[in-house]
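for the writeup, i need someone to sanity check this before i put it in the appendix. the sequnce is what the collaborator sent (i think, or maybe the updated version? ugh). structure was predicted straight from it, no edits. if anything looks off just tell me and ill rerun, i have time this weekend
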Amino acid sequence: MGRRDDAHGGRLDARAEDPDGTGEATNDLERVRDLRHAVLCAGVLLAFLLLLDWGSGLITPWRAVLWCALAGLLYAVLYPQRVSAAGNWLTTRGLVRGHRVRTDLLVSVRCLDGVSQRLLLRDRLGGRVEIDPEVLVRHPQLWLRLERGAQKAADDGMLLCGVTALRRLSERVDRETARAVFRISGLE
């Protein structure tokens, strides 16, 4: 069972509840922190713009609505995904909608490069999930569930492309986990 943060009543880690690792793993703690940052950034921008308009004497109701919309847009852009994995499912939930993929029925895993790197997972049932690989690196329980399902899909011959991307991500997760162990034990 996962440890609890007695001061805040929340989970300290994203461990599974069951000893065999079949419970749900999530990125909830990190998501709460990122959600606070999104609210803070949008609030600071709104306050700055309203104070700037008020100080210059240019504030009007329409401009105030425009600044509120701009702050809302910033919040929507910064809103963090909730990623959870249980059984053979990997689920992401954004501001508006969620996506779900069966990890044991994966047919494609692609690494999308751009401003921010994304991992695109597709399953045989038509499910599609885009996830930041950093989430998997920072939450090994999520990665273990994805890896277990992807290995089953590869063994069954369903995973047509993406074995290399998964291997690279696996090496990265292992490297970061080893660094964390060394850092905690003082051997770094």
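The longest helix spans residues 28-56. Strands lie at 4-5, 10-11, 25-26, 82-86, 89-93, 98-102, 106-112, 118-123, 128-131.
thx in advance!!
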